[in-house]
Amino acid sequence: MSSDNQWSADEDEGLLSRLIRKSRDSPFVPVGIAGFTTVGSYGLYKLKHRRDQKMSIHLIHMRVAPQGFVVRAVTLGVLYSMYKDYIRPRSFNVSKK
User: Fold this and answer.
1) CA-based nearest residue to 77, from 21, 28, 24, 30
2) pLDDT in tens, 43-72
3) H helices then E strands: how many in the chain?
């Protein structure tokens, strides 16, 4: 094996700088992470005040709500990416006669 390591630049990248770079590439990833954390934390908080609701039902709701938020964030990210790549260039490349 050669001594040149083509992955050395990626290993030097820290966790925060990687998150910042990824959030520039796809801005809805941090929104999905924050929403998942918020909805999940709220579900854990509500665990104390679930009254007569069964634990299994509460845990199912606690799983489905954050997943739904992340799916919505990913869908919005895909729609934004499609707009940015396909629709916006067409509207600005209209030839003026």
Assistant:
1) 28
2) 888 888 878 888 888 888 888 888 888 898
3) 5, 0
Closest CA to 40 of 21, 68, 18: 68
Cβ neighbours for 76, distance < 8 A, ≥ 6 positions apart: 28, 31
Ramachandran category for residue 51: left, alpha or beta (phi over 0 → left; psi -120 to 50 → alpha):
left
Largest CA distance in the chain: 70
Between 84 and 4, name the one with better pLDDT: 84
Say what the pLDDT of residue 52 is: 86
> Distance (Å, rounded) from C-alpha 33 to C-alpha 29?
6
Neighbours of 73 (CB within 10 A): 21
